[in-house]
């Protein structure tokens, strides 16, 4: 690919051409397709393992005799492990490159998936689910980093990232479908064995088609921030654990160990923030990433919106099962509109992101989030699928697909190549921390409203979801502005331009 040193003058037409052409790292169409397949499989498998477990939850509780207080960990263990380690893996990616970390994560996912499938007790399954979370913690940010580094800003990057986003929807539906089939006709173990087969396919492709970047990354001399390493893992783990487990503790928030763990977690995260901002020279999460215009309010909005998504996915399934009498396969059928709509929206988005204002698209996404929560909040007992659940699924796919693609493109384009691992970690840390924290809050709402009947208790949870969506919408309306995702200089080229190492014939392109 043409580099800044090779071109001292970059015009709008040059940028347009560069934004559409195939990166020179790929010798042809098939190597590029194999590369993209390798990366999007991580997105498919992440959603596969998160969404499918919701469908299998009641089956697992029954067959493994899971205590009521531990039920949440069958689904929360994987998110907790991902959330606690994303920043660490983000730094490791910037140190050793995406190839090493991605393939290590792929191999570990194969091993941990097999262990999940052969688990004999609920505790063993929870531990193995956490091990899966470690694998996904390596795969997700490294996949984002590899894509962000391979493609420069422009229509081709928009299309690839849209397909990547579409695969989240595909993985979500695949998890539901496979879990539904296994739960009703086979055994829950086959859910993990099928995931193992998919993981083997991903690893077989990624080992050969992902560009090797170890030598390039080592030349940068980036080192691990051991202070941030210890504080981020311990602080995030204790903080999220206390919130998630508080609903099932003997005395709720008054349980001594909940208060102690929550307090320690907050203190550790506070100490980490102070040291990272004021003391550490090479912080795990550099403050300059939040100096990118509109980055901080966007992250706050996504934290609320992604958190509401976690509530929607889990409690939507529980509601359809408990109050609408849906079987596992019916739930699969009822979520088809979300899968199909997601594929259409994501692929279509790849062709319009450079033509439509990102701010407008983000507002539409937020309205989708609000609609998905509001419809479940107002659905009456015995409510019709077509009148409430179907439009909620359509709103849900509008919400997640647009916001996910926009956020990915905005953040990876705004960060230099040396920090692409950090960019991927930040995106997924926001998502999974939001889901973990808000699911914990949803559990608290459900527990504290048990004096009502179960239906009204679920309504209160959906009210929380809707409130989070409205808050995210207000933040976007007031503080977030995103431009068209057009062909432009990369973050590294802009930095060189500012230093005088790169000139452009058309200043308006910067």
TrEMBL record:
It comes from the Eukaryota. Keywords: Membrane, Transmembrane, Transmembrane helix. GO terms for molecular function: transmembrane transporter activity. The keyword Membrane applies. It is found in: Membrane. It is a multi-pass membrane protein. GO terms for cellular component: membrane. The chain crosses the membrane at residues 29-50, 70-89, 96-115, 121-147, 159-178, 190-210, 222-244, 256-277, 298-319, 331-353, 360-379, 385-410, 422-442, 462-480. InterPro entries: MFS, MFS_dom, MFS_trans_sf. Its main location: membrane. SUPFAM superfamilies: MFS general substrate transporter (SSF103473). Residues 35-484 form the Major facilitator superfamily (MFS) profile domain. This is Major facilitator superfamily (MFS) profile domain-containing protein. The lineage of its organism: Eukaryota, Fungi, Dikarya, Ascomycota, Pezizomycotina.
């Amino acid at each position: 690919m043409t580099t800044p040193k090779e071109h001292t003058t970059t015009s709008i037409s040059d940028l347009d051409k560069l934004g559409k052409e195939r990166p020179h790292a790929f010798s042809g169409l098939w190597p590029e397709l194999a590369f993209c397949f390798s990366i999007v499989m991580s997105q498919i498998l992440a959603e596969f393992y998160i969404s499918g477990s919701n469908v299998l939850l009641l089956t697992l509780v029954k067959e493994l005799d899971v205590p009521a207080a531990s039920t949440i960990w069958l689904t929360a263990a994987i998110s907790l492990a991902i959330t606690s380690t994303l920043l660490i893996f983000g730094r490791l990616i910037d140190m050793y490159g995406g190839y090493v970390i991605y393939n290590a994560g792929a191999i570990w996912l194969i091993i941990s998936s097999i262990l999940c499938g052969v688990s004999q007790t609920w505790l063993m399954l929870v531990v193995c689910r956490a091990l899966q979370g470690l694998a996904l913690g390596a795969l997700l940010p490294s996949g984002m980093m590899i894509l962000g580094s391979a493609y420069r800003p422009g229509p081709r990057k928009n299309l690839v990232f849209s397909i990547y986003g579409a695969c989240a929807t595909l993985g979500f539906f695949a998890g539901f479908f496979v879990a539904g089939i296994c739960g009703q006709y086979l055994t829950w173990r086959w859910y993990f064995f099928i995931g193992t087969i998919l993981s083997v396919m991903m690893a077989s492709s990624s080992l050969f088609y992902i560009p090797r970047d170890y030598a390039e990354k080592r030349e940068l001399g980036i080192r691990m921030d051991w202070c941030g390493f210890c504080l981020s893992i311990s602080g995030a783990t204790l903080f999220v654990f206390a919130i998630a487990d508080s609903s099932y503790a003997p005395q709720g928030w008054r349980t001594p160990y909940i208060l102690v763990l929550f307090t320690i977690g907050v203190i550790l995260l506070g100490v980490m923030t102070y040291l990272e901002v004021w003391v550490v020279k090479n912080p795990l999460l550099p403050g300059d990433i939040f100096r990118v215009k509109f980055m901080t309010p966007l992250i706050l909005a996504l934290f609320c919106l992604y958190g509401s998504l976690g509530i929607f996915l889990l409690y939507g399934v529980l509601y359809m099962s408990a109050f609408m009498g849906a079987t596992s396969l019916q739930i699969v059928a009822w979520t088809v509109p979300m899968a199909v709509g997601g594929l259409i929206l994501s692929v279509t988005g790849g062709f319009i992101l450079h033509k439509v204002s990102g701010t407008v698209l983000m507002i539409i996404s937020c309205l989708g989030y609000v609609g998905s929560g509001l419809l479940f909040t107002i659905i009456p007992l015995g409510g019709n699928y077509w009148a409430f659940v179907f439009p909620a699924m359509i709103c849900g796919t509008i919400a997640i697909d647009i916001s996910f693609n926009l956020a990915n493109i905005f953040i990876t384009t705004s960060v230099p190549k040396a920090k692409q691992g950090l960019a991927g970690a930040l995106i997924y840390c926001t998502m999974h921390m939001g889901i973990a924290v808000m699911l914990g809050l949803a559990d608290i709402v459900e527990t504290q409203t048990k004096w009502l009947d179960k239906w009204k208790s679920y309504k209160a949870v959906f009210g929380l979801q809707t409130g989070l969506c409205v808050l995210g919408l207000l933040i976007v309306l007031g503080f977030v502005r995103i431009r068209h995702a057009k062909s432009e200089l990369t973050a590294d080229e802009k930095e060189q331009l500012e230093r005088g190492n790169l000139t452009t014939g058309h200043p308006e392109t910067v």
